[in-house]
Amino acid sequence: MKVIILGESNSIFNQFISEIRCEVIQKDPMRFRKNLQRLGEIFAYEISKVMDYETTDIKTPLGIAPVSTLVQHPVLATILRAGLPVQQGLLNIFDRAENAFISAYRKYDEAGEFHIEFEYLASPSLDGKDLILSDPMLASGASMEIGYHALLQKGAPKHVHLVAVIASAQGVAHVVKNITAENVTLWIGAVDPEMTPMSYIVPGLGDAGDLAFGAKIDSH
To answer: I need a surface site. Which of 27, 60, 199, 207 has the fewest CB within 10 A?
Structure first.
């Protein structure tokens, strides 16, 4: 699996990363969601560079212009609910894309341990298509792994792009170990060194879903 970390190069991308991490700026949910959208747009632009193109003759008022255009728009998939702003950013760029949605959550037992529970999947056929699966936080890596394997029930993609804004080093290692197909690329904004015992990334940014959409009742 090829791993690409966009934040390793200096660009405006890192400005948006700094703002979603900042506990002061995080107090504005609209700005938090907007920054995740902006990051999704940049991921989409970078991913678009490795997709397939064909030359199309475009008729202008003054003549014909040959232009390279996408052969096929991708399918955009995300894990509810935290993934929705990044999904919207991807969709702002790939505005003709089909979309898929996965419902997965942390289910806790009496001891406070949890596993990822998969509930629901809505997806078009993925046969022969580029698939972009996004989740803003790649902590343990379990959600991304479960989402990836669930989507394969809907067909065999030509290529899969996994997108995470912030990842833990452990989560990256988990995904690389457990998703072994050659047609998969992992795109990351930044990699952080640690996780808490509850699998929150450190320094991370907190709970992306709560910051974007409001706090929820604790599921354990």
So the answer is: 60
